[in-house]
Amino acid sequence: MTAHTAPPALPALPDLSDHAPSHCSACGAAAPQPLGDRDFAYSCNDHFAGTAQFPPANAPVRYHRCGSCQFTFTAALDGWTPQDFQAHIYNADYVRADPVFADVRPTRNSQMVAALWNRALQDTVVLDFGGGDGTFARRLQAMGHRCHTVDPFHGEDTPELLDHYDLITCFEVIEHVPHGDLDAWFTTLLGHLSPQGTVLLSTELLDADMALSNWYIAPRNGHISLHTAASLRALAARHGLSLFSINHEMHLLRRV
After folding, report:
1. Backbone φ, ψ for residue 38 (5° rounding)
2. Are residues 129 and 170 in contact, defined by beta-carbon separation less than 8 angstroms?
3. pLDDT tens-place string over residues 154-208
């Protein structure tokens, strides 16, 4: 952003709920505790750019943390519709919150998958689950591999999907899933996975005592469900999956 470019004003937001969740959606423990409020306009790119990318929304988004698995999430957007998310988060200004979303991340990820799976991709069709506008799939296809994309906010060009996939990629998606929808999201994901298939999932794992000021806790990015190693493992286990974390960002899931 240049000094002469004013950040775009946010449209009026739908109501933000202040109700207290009764239990943790990751591990099931009772009574997650309030962690604090973060303004809706805060984005991850505020941290990297060193300046606010949007004017203050003056709309506090309350986050809670589970005392057992330290899953950090907000229930403030529980009443939002998919159209609300599309209008107020996943809109034309989203690139201000996440500049690498459009090309840098999908290009980098396609190169990583092509290198890691290498010859196996010759006999495999990849499904990019929550793959945005399909850039990752197009990058893999340009390397001679087959890849389909499915995304609820970019569904107009979704191809006819196969019954099952041996490799499903899911980059920077799960942190966007409303906490109350996590089980349904996993059920849908696993409905596409072959019995011996692998899920490559990326999300930044928070430390158990991470402060609310952490850059990844960013409402304007749609980061509303932030995991720790314990919370992601608990959620995976409930759905019959083993979890192997390559690092704090990349994770492999397979059926037990």
Report:
1. -130, 135
2. yes
3. 765 566 899 999 999 999 999 999 999 999 999 999 999 999 999 999 999 999 9
Q: What is the CA 7 to chain-centroid distance, rounded?
A: 24
**Phi, psi dihedrals of residue 158, rounded to the nearest 5°:** -65, 125
Q: Which two tokens stand for residue 90?
A: 């996943």
pTM (2 d.p.): 0.93
Contact in structure between 231 and 225 (CB atoms under 8 Å): no
For residue 83, with 0-12 CB atoms within 10 Å meaning exposed, 13-18 middle and 19 or more buried, which class applies? Answer: exposed
Q: Where are the alpha helices (DSSP H) in the chain?
A: 44-49, 82-88, 94-97, 104-117, 135-142, 182-191, 229-238
CA distance 234 to 70: 11
32, 66 contact by CB (below 8 A)? yes
In the chain, domain spans: 33-255
- Give 86's contacts (C-beta < 8 A, 6+ positions apart): 153
Using an 8 Å Cβ cutoff, are 126 and 141 in contact?
A: no
Q: Which residues of 131-170 are buried (b: 16+ CB within 10 A; e: fewer)?
A: bbbbbbbebbeeeebebbbbbeeeeeeeeeeeebbbbbbb
Contact 207, 176 (CB under 8 A): no
What CATH architecture does domain 33-255 belong to? 3-Layer(aba) Sandwich (3.40)
